[in-house]
TrEMBL record, chain A:
Keywords for this protein: Chaperone, Hydrolase, Nucleotide-binding
Entry similarity comment: Belongs to the SIMIBI class G3E GTPase family. ZNG1 subfamily.
InterPro entries in alphabetical order: CobW-likC_sf, CobW-like_C, CobW/HypB/UreG_nucleotide-bd, P-loop_NTPase, Zinc-reg_GTPase_activator
Name under which the protein is recorded: Cobalamin biosynthesis protein CobW
Keyword flag Nucleotide-binding: yes
Native source species: Streptomyces violaceusniger
Automatic annotation (TrEMBL), chain B:
Domain of life: Bacteria
Gene3D superfamilies: YVTN repeat-like/Quinoprotein amine dehydrogenase (2.130.10.10)
A biological process from GO: ribosomal large subunit assembly
Protein's name in the database: Uncharacterized protein
Length: 340, 343
């Protein structure tokens, strides 16, 4: 795995933001807003859709989605060949970019995009996935979420919300308060920990979506007190979040076994996972982050003196069995072994 | 045995710079072609390094290939390709919008160009002779077999071989995975692909017998046969691996490991089949190897190391006596070797 350890100096890699969202959700508007704002950043944009992005200062590259299976026996492990190619060529140019934006089509699966940053060493060495930002059209998203897909076909709107680190709830001017509340509810039912940013005409404070370090293990957990919000299931939705918050220290070996088995057997259905854990005997927090079956973990900050050892983790995915996850995780507690 | 310290430094034949980050080098006859990432191509005199001509490929460049007689060059890039004619410097740009990864000359009259998911076979002036049907993904590499009658095309899921009479492949070598680089043994016996899944996949052309060398720490994006076709060098790890393809091939054998760089950025066999290899690294070093010395499985040390300041972007040999290195900062350097056979 290629994530640098926390002892290294500040991450020098170029941050990459992935913008997803359905056609008409305001991706191009947001993109243009990012590009025209006076932030002094040199930005490269990789577009999957023919948008009207065109700013002198930015390099805009077109790409067509090419999803490649990895030959490693992991069926959900796919990468985006087009991005590997384009990002590789971009990194060989003399000009340095401060930020890279990848715009995906409204129908794109975010998993191969995210997995590309885990799976390709050349990319992982030079670029870091900063966040997946999903634009949601407040007026039309429910319709997309409710769309019934044929057996075996993913509802892309659900997937894009499940994968998101930030959701820009756009076009709030076109709906009333109760509609906003309903949409927010639905988003939370799928992805309980995501930050929702309400917006009109994609007008947002850019630091809320750029260089937020949502894939940076330390920052994810340090800055995100809402990371684990228990959700009530008002909706009959197959894609949900399961958050676990448990005090105590974990037996590392049992944890590895449980997590390994879980991701191997249920990884296809687990879209995202992240957590901050207390390993028995470890002076530092252990933080991990996963996309489907791929997982990276590292030690984060020190536990403070007298700080309660606490484990917080969240799984976002399809047909998650909350009880099994809770029990399985509880069995990893160091004390669970002694009790058994 | 290598005694780096006691050997005199290699003479620098010339040293020049281009105004871009070079991404590819190619040498034929008396010319060197340099591709800059932003899309300028430089044609240099191999003996002196002096600039002879430049041309532009809007949208950037990925590779450049001179014709065997050095009377033409083909440059490819993210949004198309360009053809250059030495006689009068005329350049024709084909802004196809499709990703052109590479070009390969069959002979002086035909060049194959990767164009999106297809490969085009063109005359040196750009007239299309024939084209392949689209592959499963953007074409990543090309190589000619059978004296330029058969074209091997690497893309996702397979290496497909094409001939002029039909756009469909005449032979398909399937293997699920993203084939990043292609090497065909000059003997015509082997087709090898470097893979995104950190392996080398090998087919024996005679019967399509397959072999996979897996377990590389990283993707294999550079691989090359020497002139004899008995040796294959590959990246995919900090060590360059060199496989023995003589006899029955590398099945059941271990490669020689060449340790010098943390990250390998270029590989080039010295022409002539003496087993001499040049490799370049992200740290700026160029290493010269007696790459076929010792036993299988042994770890070799470089015969020579040439230090540089910035990442080695590309290496090429302009004949057996002149090694040309391009560095990321635009520097192009040529080193003269003491003789045609010594290192």
């Amino acid at each position: 795995m290629t994530t640098p350890t926390s002892d290294e100096p500040r991450d020098q890699r170029v941050p990459v933001t992935v913008l997803t969202g359905f056609l008409g959700s305001g991706k191009t508007t947001l993109l243009n807003r990012i590009l025209t704002e006076q932030h002094g950043l040199r930005i490269a944009v990789i577009e999957n859709e023919f948008g009207e992005v065109g700013v002198d200062d930015a390099l805009v590259l077109d790409s067509e989605e090419e999803i490649f299976e990895m030959n490693n026996g992991c069926i959900c492990c796919t990468v985006r060949g087009d991005l590997i190619r384009i990002l590789g060529a971009l990194m060989r140019r003399r000009e340095k970019f401060d930020h890279i934006l990848i715009e995906t089509t409204g129908l794109a699966d975010p998993a191969p995009v995210a997995q590309t940053f885990f799976m390709d060493d050349e990319i992982a060495a030079q670029l870091r996935l900063d966040a997946i930002v999903t634009l949601v059209d407040a007026a039309h998203v429910l319709q997309h979420l409710d769309e019934v897909k044929p057996e075996g076909v993913e509802n892309e709107a659900v997937e894009q919300i499940a994968f998101a680190d930030r959701i820009v709830l756009n076009k709030t001017d076109l709906v009333d308060e109760s509609a906003i509340a309903e949409v927010t509810d639905r988003i939370r039912a799928i992805n309980s920990s995501v930050q929702i940013i309400p917006a009109q005409h994609a007008e947002i404070y850019l630091p809320q979506v750029l260089d937020v370090g949502a894939f940076d293990l330390e920052r994810v957990l340090a800055e995100d007190p809402s990371f684990l919000t228990e959700t009530e299931h008002q909706h009959d939705t197959t894609v949900t979040s399961v958050g676990i918050d448990l005090t105590g220290e974990l037996d590392e070996e049992r944890l590895n076994r449980w997590l390994g088995t879980l991701l191997r057997t249920k990884g296809v259905d687990i879209f995202r996972s992240k957590g901050i854990l207390a390993l028995a005997g470890a002076p530092k927090q252990y933080v991990f982050q996963g996309v489907h079956m791929l997982l990276v973990g590292e030690f984060g900050r020190h536990w403070h003196d007298g700080e309660q050892r606490r484990n917080r983790l969240v799984f976002i995915g399809r047909n998650l069995d909350r009880e099994a996850l809770e029990c399985g995780f509880a069995d990893c507690l160091a004390t669970a072994g002694a009790a058994a | 045995m290598s005694i780096t310290a006691s050997e005199p430094d290699l003479a620098t034949a010339w040293d020049t710079a281009v105004d871009d980050a070079p991404v590819a080098l190619n040498a034929r006859q008396d010319l060197i072609a340099v591709a800059g990432a932003a899309g300028t191509l430089w044609i240099l005199d191999a003996t002196t390094g002096a600039g002879i001509d430049t041309f532009e490929l809007p949208g950037g460049a990925l590779s450049v290939a001179l014709a065997p007689d050095a009377r033409h060059a083909a440059a490819t890039g993210p949004t198309g390709y360009a053809l250059w004619r030495r006689e009068d410097g005329r350049t024709t740009v084909h802004d196809t919008g499709a990703w052109s990864a590479t070009a390969a000359w069959a002979d002086n009259e035909r060049v194959a160009i990767a164009a999106g998911r297809r490969a085009l076979v063109l005359t040196p002036d750009g007239e299309e002779r024939w084209a392949t049907e689209p592959a499963a993904s953007t074409v990543t590499d090309l190589a000619w077999l059978r004296q330029g009658r058969r074209l091997a095309v690497a893309a996702y899921g397979a290496v497909r071989c094409h001939e002029r009479h039909t756009p469909k492949p005449v032979m398909t070598y399937p293997y699920i995975g993203s084939h990043l680089a292609l090497a065909v043994a000059p003997t015509g016996r082997w087709i090898c692909s470097g893979n995104q899944d950190a392996s080398i996949h090998i087919w024996r052309t005679r019967d399509a017998g397959e072999l996979t060398m897996s377990g590389y720490p990283e993707k294999v994006s550079r691989l090359a046969f020497d002139d004899t076709g008995f040796w294959l060098a590959a990246d995919g790890a900090p060590d360059v691996t060199v496989w023995d393809f003589s006899g029955k091939g590398p099945a059941g054998t271990a490669p020689r490991s060449l340790r010098c760089h943390e990250t390998i950025t270029a590989l080039a066999w010295r022409p002539g089949g003496g087993g001499h290899l040049a490799s370049g690294g992200a740290d700026g070093t160029v290493a010269l190897w007696r790459a076929t010395a010792g036993r299988p499985e042994s770890r070799l040390s470089p015969a020579r190391i040439l230090d540089g300041d910035t990442t080695v972007a590309a290496l090429t040999w302009a004949g057996p006596e002149l090694l040309v290195s391009a560095y990321r900062d635009g520097r192009i350097r040529a080193h003269r070797l003491p003789s045609r056979t010594t290192l």
